[in-house]
Design goal:
about 300 residues; mainly alpha; globular
């Protein structure tokens, strides 16, 4: 059962972490170690005011807005296009960041009139984190709708495929889903155990030679040192950063700051970590001083409420 608290926590916790990471995007780890993120600040990489969220949150909100009316992939990708081409679902009605793979997929739909599920790129080098960053609403929806396991996998695969259609991107979204579901089903258990349990449940599908890229997640990820992790935009790296950051911290605040302070793709690593951490620790774990600075927070809350009421 999905609660209103689950929706607000997972979505807004992700948006806040995204906004925390925006000013630091592309910063090298050495810079972050010298001048680590400790709270909400502005300007930096994109010269945006404090509390400004990025494309990660915009696409998350667009996904959520579409699912209010059920599963309709044409509607969902149309809303993505409204974001990238018209500035909807943005803090200031304009887009200041977008991944190349995402843009190419949305151009396939807008200008080439392709079937939504054929728009996503399928190359090995198209496995950026652009679908994982926006997948949380689909996870919440799949569980609220009580889809059976295979339906969940197919649904998450399809939501990813609108922009990122390679099996690695789809699998990354589903591994993340297994962990989120553990939190939803067993909120009273230790967070570390839930992360491990979710990973273990995904083994049946992805712990094989076809998905060797997940070997570290299935073997020794949590025994690694910080220096063994990469914070670049490859989807598997972002999944590793988020799981590692959540596993090795004890609060929402600690988890998202740890993820961001690896540098490079700070906003996306933030939202992926923040969604899971807030889902576990709850809405009240998000520092009030951070929430107060989020642009259009009332709009985001209203959309979360409408999304929850649609279940």
């Amino acid at each position: 059962m999905i609660t209103k608290e689950n929706v607000y926590s997972a979505i807004i916790g992700g948006v806040v972490a995204d906004a925390l990471g925006v000013p630091y995007e592309f910063s090298f780890r050495e810079e972050m170690q010298k001048h680590p993120a400790t709270g909400m600040r502005g300007y930096g990489t994109y010269n945006q005011p404090p509390g400004t969220w990025s494309d990660d949150s915009s696409m998350t909100l667009a996904t959520m807005d579409s699912l209010i009316n059920g599963i309709n992939y044409k509607d969902m990708i149309t809303k993505f296009c409204s974001w990238i081409f018209d500035g909807e679902y943005t803090p200031y009605d304009e887009v200041f960041d977008c991944g190349k793979t995402t843009l190419s997929a949305l151009e396939n739909f807008r200008y080439n009139d392709m079937n939504p599920l054929n728009c996503g790129l399928t190359g090995e080098h198209d496995n950026g984190n652009g679908s994982l960053m926006r997948i949380m609403p689909a996870i919440l929806y799949a569980n609220a709708a009580e889809l059976i396991p295979q339906e969940k996998i197919e649904f998450i695969n399809n939501v990813s495929a609108l922009t990122h259609a390679h099996p690695i991107s789809q699998a990354s979204c589903n591994i993340y889903r297994f962990i989120a579901e553990e939190i939803l089903e067993h909120p009273e258990k230790d967070f570390k155990k839930l992360i491990v349990n979710g990973i273990d449940k995904s083994r049946e599908y992805y712990d094989n030679n076809e998905y060797e890229c997940f070997n570290r997640i299935y073997t020794d990820l949590f025994d690694m040192d910080d220096d063994d992790l990469s914070s670049k935009g490859y989807v598997v790296y972002s999944l590793e950063i988020s799981l590692y950051s959540c596993y090795h911290t004890n609060s929402y605040k600690e988890a998202v700051l740890k993820a961001i302070n690896y540098g490079r793709d700070t906003d996306t690593n933030g939202i992926i970590s923040g969604g899971l951490a807030a889902l576990y620790y709850g809405y009240d774990s998000i520092p009030e001083i951070w929430l107060e600075q989020i642009v259009k927070l009332d709009y985001i809350k209203d959309l979360c409420k409408e999304f929850f009421n649609s279940f």
